[in-house]
Each structure stands twice: as C-alpha cells, then as structure tokens.
Records
---
Amino acid sequence: MNPNEDLIEAALQVQLNSRSKYSGFSVGCAIRLAAGDVYTGCNIESVSFGLSNCAERVAIGVLISAGVDPSLVSEILVVGPDLVDCTPCGACRQVLSELVPHATIWFRHGGQWVSRNVLDLMPDALEASLKTFE
C-alpha cells in the first residue's frame, strides 16, 4: 500500500524550500488532518547542527502555530531527496510521540513506502517514563 499522491506531492513541493546547505539532504514533510487539510514543513539547517530543525518538527510547529489541535492529525509523510530512504530521527520521533501518538506516518525504507503508527517508532518515549514521577 502507498500513501495518497497528494500527500507525496505536498511533501515534495515543500522540500524545494529546504535550507540544507551543510548536509545537502533536503527533507519535506506533509501532515494531513482527519478533515483533509494539509500542513507542511521542510528542514532548516544551521552551521551549528544542533540548532537545525527537521522537516517533521517544522511541520508540526506550523500546524500548532496555526491553532490546530494535534489530535486532529491523521497521517504524516516524510520525503528525502529523490525519494531515498528517509525515516524520522530520534528527536522527531520523540516530539511526534508526544504530540501525535495516534497518527500514521509514511516514509521510505528499503526503497518502499512504509506506514507505521507513530508510537511504533518510539515505543518507550520519554513521556511514558515521566509518568512514573507524577
């Protein structure tokens, strides 16, 4: 099974805005709400690499900045350059597991489209550990 073409196209389109001067690895992300609206983000790098922002976190930031409740997110799609394999990094997995744990995420792995539940990518997210301290 593959994601809908419109979600792929939205991620590819925003990927063109990537600021990936240092890695040369442009990433685009498209997030679909249950109602069908799509929000996008691309990676933005800094020479101080730790200050860079991944496409997934930019897209979720755009969505939240627009006043959208993250619980309305149904699916997320991530693309790398030329549709090479590209999965969310650990930081993105953590943020997505906190904000949109119920969502389906699409990415390329082994040259194929793969879909997973966000929590499957981060089964022992930090939030779960913090609950023991409440």
---
Amino acid sequence: INRDIWLPFIDAYHRKNPEKYIALHAADFIRANGGKSLHTADLSAYAKGVRASFARYDKNIQVDIDFSFFERMASNTTSSERGIYKLIYTLASGEKELYYGRFHVFHRKIGGKWKIAVDYDTDDGEKIGETQFKAGKKIAEL
C-alpha cells in the first residue's frame, strides 16, 4: 500500500502532477467531504476538481503533503486506513502555511495494484493541528 498509494501520492503533490495523483484512484472511486464542505463525488467530478486545484498552485510555491496514521488494516484485496494529513505550502519567502485534515480511505487491489476506492476527508472544524498529527505513525514507522 505504501508503494502503490502513499509514496506516489506524496510525489504527485510534490511535483504538482494531477494525472499521477488521479491514477491512484479506482474507476468507481467515491469521494466524500465532511466538515464545512459537505459533498460527495465520483471519479470524474473529483478529477475535474483535482485538476483545477493543482492548476491554481503558484509556480513559486512548493506543495507537499504528509500523513500520520492511527489505524491501518488490510486483507489480501481490501484495506482501511485512518489518519491525519498535513498539507504544506512553502512560499517563495520560505514561510510555510500548514493545513490539516482527518482522512479515512478504503483501498482495493485491482490488477495486482492497490487503488483508492473511497476517500473521506474532514477538517473537523479546523480543530486538527500539529499535536494531533504527531500522535500518529509516519509511513516509515509502519
């Protein structure tokens, strides 16, 4: 899962490559947002939003994402993972802007590779921060 999902996910954000990111998702993908942005989407609608979001990234801003996991479980063909993501914008001045959210993703193995089947995110009313992020485990620790 790290090889098929999380490491390419991080790389896609770092390189601002929406197509690499979208390719991590199953064709019948479901996206759900909680918090102040309640909505659901299929892969087509989600991909359109992802492309628009990545297109807004300024060339002078470095974008990175990191993950902290609180629960990971998997069988041979399905998995569930919960945690907190940290979105990091590094401005040209070196100043960093940080954004956090909770996630719960479900993966399915399709054609021998893991794909994101369902992704639920929420900002919990912006009550998530570095303290909560550090309480989980990093990819390298798992």
---
Amino acid sequence: MIIDIEVMNRKLDLAINLLRRTYTPTRVGGGWYHQLDMDPPGPTATGVALTAFHEANQRFEHFAEALSFLKSRQITAPNPDVAGGWAMNTSFGLPVVEATGWVARFLGLARCGHIDGGPDVAGAYRWLLCNQNDDGGWGSMRGCPSRTWLTCLALRALAQLDPYAPAIGRGVDWLLSRQDRVSCGWGAGVNAAGPPTVTHTGFVLLTLSELRIDRAQEHILNAYTWLEKNLDPSAIDDPQARIESYNVNQTIDGKPVVWHTILVHYGLPVALSALLRHPICPPPAPICAGFATIAATQLDDGSWPNIQGGQGASIWALWPFVQALTDISRLPLIRPADQLVLSPGLVAIQRQEVRGRPLTSLLRTQRWLAVARFFARFWASLLLILSVVTGLLLVGAGRFGWQDFLLGLILPIGLFVLQELRQRHGKR
C-alpha cells in the first residue's frame, strides 16, 4: 500500500491551476462562482477557492482583489443578527451560515484580521455567535433548524477565529447529543435526523479533530470504526448523501420569502480527511485505496466528476479533494511511544505494539498480507484458470474428452461469475 507523493503533487497542481484559470475580475475585485466557468462571483465559492490556495500552500496573485470582493459583499447593518455575515447569491441578501462559515474560516486560516481594506473579521465572528441557535447548533441563520453540516461549518470557522469561544463548547455538545446511539454516526437532516451517512459522520469527526476535542472517548472511536466499515473507497461520492437540500423560510420587510438550498457532498474525500486524523492510527487500506480513486478520477481540467450532472467544473467537485490531498501531505506519522528507524534512503516508523521486532520481519509480514489479499480478491479467477489449464492438459493426454472438459468448467465458471457480481455490487 503506497501513496506516491509525486502523483499527489501533480493532482494538486492541476486543481489549483484550474482555480487560477477561472478567477473572474469584477469592478470591486474578483472571485469565483460555484460553477467555475460562470459568473458573477459569489462570496461562498470565493472563500472556498481562497481556502484551497491556502491549504495547498500556493500563493495567489489576485489575493488582494479577492479580499476586496469579499469586503464588498459583507453585510453592514445595525442589526447584529445581520451585520458581519455574507449572503449567497440566492438568499435575498440575507447572510447565512452556508456562506459566512466558509468565508470566516478562510479569514481565520489566512490571518486576515489586520489587513487594511480587508473584510471585517471581528464582524464575521460576532455574526456566527449571534446566529447560534438556543440548542447549541446552527441552521442557515438564527431560528432555522440546526443541521449537522451547518453546525460543523460554523464550528470550523470559530476554531480559526477563537478556539476558546464558549459557543464552541455548546456546538460540540449539540453534535455529541445528536450522535446515533446504535451506529455512533451522524445523519443529515434537521437535528441530525435520518440514518447516519459516511459524509456527515466524516465531517463531524473532521470538525472535532480541528477543535482538539478528546477523540479517544469510546463513542468517538466507535464513530471512526463505523466510518471505516461503511466507506467505499472505490467511489468518490456517498450514495446516501450526494445532495442535501432544504427550504429556508424568512421574512423581509414583513413579507415571507422562501429559497431552496442545495449542498453537494463528496463522501470519499471528506471521510479520507477524517480517517487521516484517527486518534489511534490512520487505517492504511482505505486511505491508500481512497487516494488511488481520487487520483484516478480527476478530470483533465483539474476537477472531479460533477455529481449534480451539470456541465463544467464546480468548486464543490474540487475543494474537498484538495483538502484530502493536502491532509495526506501533512499526515502526522509519529505517535508518542513510536520508534523512528533511520537509514540512508529510508525513514521508517516502528509502532509501539511491535517494538523489539526486527524491521525485516515486519516487511515480510506485509508481503504475506499483500499475497493473501490478492488471493482473496482473485481466487475464483485463479480457480478458473487452473481448471482450464488442467483440463487442456488432460484432454491432450487422452485422459478427458472435450465433453468432460466443458462439463468440468461449469462449477469454476459459476464461482467466477458469482464472485464478480459480488465485487461489483460491493462497489455500488
């Protein structure tokens, strides 16, 4: 199980170069729309794109202009429930967590609080605090039902702006109180209702990691176990949570307004980012298999397939993959009781549980495990090949007739077909 860092860097460069090509200047700066080949820019996509540059450790030549655009779109009003946030292009000018969470997190990550002419970071922080629901979670804005994804967006932003804000503790309590008691995962609906999904469970675990919550607790470790068990590393999206959609009801100037929000989720990169932060040890098999899938499915333009079915690249078909790839590059390998084995051209980490065993014996064990996995995957194919070769030799030697040979292939062919059907069903 190998992750090629050179391949990873090429994939990252392709994605970041797509963002460079699709940047759109405006009268007050510039940015991105969520459909990257379209305009006008919006604050959400602009915040997400700038976060991608920051996470990939890439300098963006239009950084100042993008900040000016975000400043121009920040809401200013005497009402603290409104001032300091950002609206989506479709939210009737009302600031929402779906936009403010992403922009505020970027501003915290990039340490933009003291940049002259930049957005009001303190105002963004106050907006997030003012729009936390009484139950501790976040909806699109105060008074909207709390949702798992939106609560995580707000908490990830606060973690960068003030990791000791009391609102974080209340938000974490909301998340933990909504954990499914049977699976230990999290669902997508209002108040985390509905069956747990790989996407939402991964996003919660990713959020808890960024908040430095003690993840060695049994109920959180069980969530990691559930995530690893239910993740399909051969598919970039989670069939249970591709699209999260809901209506937002508000009142403007005494008149009711309703808009529909659609959140596009890619389960594999979100889960991969979570598993890379496993508090005991990142599981190598799903991580390596997931990386292979991400590398193989990237499109020529640098994005990944648009699961909404539309044409053109989407910021949502790029950002989570950039996050996962950069997380791999920062994988914390060493744990407190490990041993570091140094040799010319080789750096190895020997885990606490195998201290004292020669490194050569560990490498032999890994080779045998690889052979065992190969036979477990292809045993029916190997049985069919062996049956064909053996049958042909016996026919050639006059021990079998052709009719006997063909009849003898019925069972191995049936087993081969059955295995292939099970493999394909497991990948769906």
---
Amino acid sequence: MSPQTVLSRNPETIATEIDGEVVLMSLTTGRTFGLDKRGSAIWALIEQPRTVAAVVAELIKAYNVTAEQCQADVMTFVGKLVEAQLASVKDPVAST
C-alpha cells in the first residue's frame, strides 16, 4: 500500500452510527465491527473512493499527529478493514 493507493468501502457492508461511533456489519461474512473515533473518521472519509494521501491529509487537520504516524496508522487500520472484507484497496497502475 502506498500514499497513492485508493481506498473504498465494500458495498456489501452496512454501517450505522451509535453514540458517535460507527458499527459495521459485513453482509459477506455476517460479522460486526465497532470503530472508535478515528476509525469512524476514516470510514467517513472513504465514503467515496479516496487515496491514502487524501485521507491522511484530512486526518492531520483534525488530529494532533505527524504525517508519518498518521499514514502508518491509516495503512494498518485499512489493512484490517480489507482483511475483514469491509473495504478494498486499488494500487495505482505503474506508468510505462
């Protein structure tokens, strides 16, 4: 995954907000997942497909975090979403 990787939600995921946090349910696996405040912010940001760099830029505005730490955290979190089939990633095609 790189800063130019495009993040998007899996359309087979249902999301609802409960007490300011997002709860996800995968229609594919039947599992549910609770997101904390930062996870909920990332989920909101990928409502439309968006690059890792764009997500990081928005989170830096909202949280007191370095770009490097934010990028690492986003990539780790998104990796977990992808593993749980809640989101997908699309790496940019290398130009020749």
